[in-house]
Specification:
Layout (H helix, E strand, L loop, with lengths): L29 H26 L4 H37 L1 H12 L17
Length: 126
């Protein structure tokens, strides 16, 4: 009986290498688990602090809103100061300048000087 040899299957791994095996679920040591928990906790706290800094009661957005409001109020105050200065100047002129008093009396009250003649012109309708 002749010897029958089976065909050889060549391996791709180098000679002497151990066969590949499935990795077993190795329990994570408690120190690594604790370290991972601390990292996650630190990331969460950092995220909460950043969000609070941006959106919170005294955060960046509120700060920007307060600055804009301050600029608007300052501009309004400056406009009121200019109007107040004009009114003060007008009061001073009405108290001290006879020409201003006469001008207001002629325009608003329709008064004239003795001896003046008033001409009133009316537009004719076509």
């Amino acid at each position: 009986m002749p010897l029958v040899t089976e065909p050889r299957i060549e391996s791709r791994r180098p000679a002497g290498a151990e066969p590949l095996r499935r990795k077993r679920d190795v329990p994570v040591p408690s120190s690594a688990l604790r370290r991972r928990s601390v990292h996650i906790l630190l990331i969460f706290v950092t995220l909460v602090l950043v969000v609070d800094a941006l959106i919170g009661e005294k955060g960046l957005m509120e700060s920007m809103r307060a600055r804009r409001h301050y600029r608007e109020v300052t501009a309004s105050l400056e406009a009121l100061r200019r109007a107040n200065a004009k009114l003060r100047d007008e009061v001073r002129r009405l108290n001290e300048d006879p020409a201003t008093i006469e001008s207001v009396a002629r325009e608003e009250l329709g008064l004239i000087r003795p001896g003046e003649v008033v001409f009133i012109f009316k537009d004719q309708k076509k």
